Amino acid sequence: MTADAAAIERAAARAIEAVVIGASAGGFEALLAVLEGLPPTYPMPLVAVLHLPENHDSRLPELFGHRLELRVCEARDKESLAPGVLYFAPAGYHLQVEADRTFSLSCEGRVSYARPSIDVLFETAADAYGKSLAGILLTGANYDGAAGLAGMKVAGALTIVQDPATAEVPTMPEAAIRRMAPDLILPLAEIHSLLQRLGGHR
Description:
Rossmann fold; about 200 residues; 7-stranded parallel sheet; alpha/beta; about 20% strand; 7 helices
């Protein structure tokens, strides 16, 4: 179940200003596959929530920094989003995007049993960016992200879900597809190709 060529062409023509990505079980390798090869001059920020145990410091910036050309860091409270940077939510904190396109961190309760929550990132980013946002939901073992992606679709954002048939754990993408009709359902290689094309507009 993948998108047709016309839908991909329409998506590639969109004017996107930021990309948010959510993943859980199996997400490390999936995220690498989607982002490897994007240049340090990539013209928009990328923000990711990858579920982690709350009682461990995140080594995601270090691990991804060794593999990607993008600058990789942990998002900081009140920091402005910058192009060419991959931001990770810190372990144990919800990561929110404010209307002025800065980050805020929250210790509020878990959402969909998770903190950081993909739903929280997606919903707040949709409020900040509207139709100039792209959201990507990858492999995972719970339902986090489905509600947030649905909210993004209502806001006019570009919504992309990994083809469940290609996901290490299909629960998360399947939940999103049941809840809403994403703009695109794609395998990882095609998500990667689309991100390259979106980054070529500027």
